[in-house]
Structures are given as structure tokens and as C-alpha cells.
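Case study: Multifunctional fusion protein.
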Amino acid sequence: MSGERQCTIGAPFTMEGIGLHTGRPVRLTARPGEPGQGIRFRRLDLPGTPVIPAAIANVVEVLRGTTLGVGEARVHTVEHLMAGAYGLGIDNLWLDLDGPEPPAMDGSARPFAEALRQAGRVEQDLPRTFCRLPEICQLEEGDRALTYLPSDRFEVTFTLAYPGNLIPPQILHVEVEETLFFDRISRARTFGFVHEFDMLREKRLALGGSLENAVVIKADGTCMNPEGVRDPQEFVLHKILDLIGDLALIGKRLRGHVIAHKTGHAYNCRFARRLCQRFQEIQERKPSGMMTYEEIKSILPHRYPMLLIDKIVALDPGKSAIGIKNVTGNEEFFQGHFPQRAVMPGVLLIEAMAQVAGVLFLSQPEHKGKLPFFVGIDGVRFRRPVVPGDRLELHVKVLKVRGNTGKVAVEARVDGEEVTAAELMFTIV
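Here is what the predicted structure looks like once written out:
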């Protein structure tokens, strides 16, 4: 699920059932999508077979489910299907419907996830785009809140609580990866309270709801379903499922830790819009070729204490790059080099410049996920020591490339003065 290339399904499949809220019979057919198209619904029962892209900008209603619309065409309750596609790592998909809502199936995303897995996942020749923010983003209103924290993974912490503790409070933290999604999150069913059903039906909702596609909770807090719950944390897992489905409407793979407190579809979609807006603002103000520390971590395999660059300030693909390393007195290597006079080891200066070269080459689609290795170093010169407080500018220029091997000229500067220079030979495997 965390690969670098976009994916679609290997073969079409069809599912039939009734819509949870509309109560109408419906047939869903999923077909492979083209690279870059995203997930698109198509209403085969309407004149002109209108297409409704699964995008946060197309959310038109959020009452007890997420509804997408373009013009007069609508698709209701898309969150379980969207979560299933996201959880199984599917980026591009056609979803043809002969009605206004996907089939509810058993009230979870598991039937969709099983069908997607059986259809097979096919990598496509286009890199994924990741929504990753370098800063905290929050949305808070009363006792509801959503917070985004930077992370190189997609994590969710959800707090579920209801007045009177009719359902005991549940708090759960998960890393959203395919195995956990399929085994636990996808199985969690829609749930509701007995006293809500009359109100929902007055609003023409839950018309297809039954004990076969929802968990119903009685006034005393017990479960009406004879089989009980599927998981001791099924209710909070279903809230996480809904959140994943709503955030999937961002249209990009999310990297970050989302902390949710008592949220539903309306709040989830507001937060998804805010994340989209912040991501777009950051992309527009970021100079061409600039990369943050988190973006560097998504390209290089290095981690603390061996990740030696803080950001990339310029990158001309296949030609050159400039990185920054802020040298502080807290660097681990200063404990032994040297206790009486802190000096950055020359081998680590070479390594830092090599890592900038690594970003330059591994950021290219054909090299994503590979590893760079030294095969030679020529003409190394150390002009002066690098000490705490120095800001290293690490310049890399490509001299020659042949297949997976190449040669680069590297130079480290402090305050415009050269401190180290060399030529590095490498291979990418």
C-alpha cells in the first residue's frame, strides 16, 4: 500500500445489493482506471451517464454519510468504498453504478476490500503524489477536534465518546497499513442507536438499514445483533474507517498523524478541505525543487543519526542539487570527535554531500526505492574544519551518468567559502 507508483485493479468485478440510506437495489461495477485519473463514479442510470470524480471539492452533503455531486447527479454514502480503495492501495478506478448509492453489503468495507484484493493490484507508470505537511494543522469546535501532526506514515488516533456513556469511551491508535486495514478496520460495521432509526427514516435515511448491514444498540447499551460485535473495538474502528474514507477524497496518499476526537463526516470533510488548502498553499510558495526534511525522508533510506541533510533548496533533475545541513553542538558524533574540540568528521562531510546526490537521483521515478552505493572517491580536499554553528551548503553537479552508475562533483561551503570538495562515483541498485 505504501509503494511509490500509482495502482489500479487488474480485472473488473461486479457487486449487487441495496443502498443503506436509499434502500434501493443497485449494481456496482469496478473497472481499471487510467494513470492519474483518480477514482471516478459514473451514474449509468442517468441521461448522459454523468461522471462524478471522488474529490473533496465535490462533497455536497454530509448527513449520516458522505455524498458527492456534480450538477444534478449524486452518489450517496461513498465513504466505505473510498476507504476500501485507499486501504488496498488503489489510486485509479472507475466505479459504475445503476443507482444513487453503492450497495451497503454488510455495513463495513470488508466486502469491497475482498473484491479489490481478488481483482489484483497493478502498478502503473506514474508516481504517486503524497499529501505531507511540514506543520501542525488543527480544526476545533466545542468538544470536537481534528489535528494533523507531521509524520512519514499515515497514523490515526481516534477518541469515541457519547453522552451518558451509552457506548463506553474508546480510544485507539493505528498505523494505516494494508494488513491492519484488511484484518481489522475494514471489518468494522456501521452502528447506530434504536432511538435514532425513526428520526432517520423521517429524513428518508437508513431506508435499507437492517441487522444484516448495521450494528444496532439498544437503550441499555447492549447490542441487538445476535452475533454481537466483531471486535471489542468495532465502534471506534468504524469511526476510523469513515475518517479514512473521507480523507481519501483528498486524492493523494496521506502522510501524517491525524488525531480525531468525536468527529463525524461533516467535520472529517471540513478537515480534508483544510488539509488540501494548506497543501496547495505550501506547494505554491515553495521554490521549485525545494524539499523539506520529511520529503527527504520519503526518498532516502537513511535515518537518525545518519541522515545528514535538513532540506533541499534547489534541484534541477538529472543535473544539480543544493542541500543544507545545520551543524549544532548536539550532533551525536561530537561526543567523541573531539571531546576537547568539536570538529565534524571529514567522512561525514563526504557522506552529507553524497546524500544530496542521493536525493538528486533517487527522486527520479526510475530510481525510487533503490539504494545508492559509493564505488569511488577522487580529489578530496578539506580546506578548514566544520564546527558547531556552521551552516553547510552542499552543492552537487552531475558530471557523467551511464545506466545505474555515475560521477558527480561535490562541494561543501560555509558562508560562501569552500570547506570540502571531491568527485564521487556511485552505483544505484
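For the exam, be able to explain this: The mean pLDDT is 92.
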